[in-house]
Write a structure and sequence with these properties.
By secondary structure, the protein is an alpha+beta fold. Helix content is about 20%, strand content about 25%. The chain is built from 1 helix and 5 strands.
């Protein structure tokens, strides 16, 4: 009698676990991702692209899909002329590559 109850309990747990997984319960254990606009810092490439990265992604530079180098950073634009440039927080640009104006310190 007890072994039958144990089998019913295990079967119920398996069914509930399967339903939980089908309804997206496993997403609780995955890192949420967000789309970011990146720019390759390689002067010969300067590729702009979108990438799905984890919300707290800190492993910069990211890999550029065009030149395959780890040289991509978040794309930022100049406050004056809107020229795009990669924002490298460890080695930030002091002047805009296009108009030469002073860029903000991050």
């Amino acid at each position: 009698m007890k072994s039958r109850q144990l089998l019913i309990l295990i079967g119920t747990a398996v069914v509930l676990g399967a339903v939980w997984l089908m309804l997206g319960g496993a997403s609780l254990f995955t890192t949420p991702k967000t789309e970011k606009l990146l720019m390759c810092g390689n002067a010969d490439c300067a590729n702009e692209f979108k990438a799905q990265l984890p919300v707290k992604f800190q492993d910069y530079p990211a890999k550029c899909p065009k030149c395959s180098q780890r040289s991509a950073f978040v794309l930022t634009r100049c406050w004056r002329c809107s020229a795009p440039y990669p924002l490298d927080l460890k080695h930030p640009l002091e002047k805009c590559p296009k108009c030469g104006c002073e860029l903000p310190k991050y």
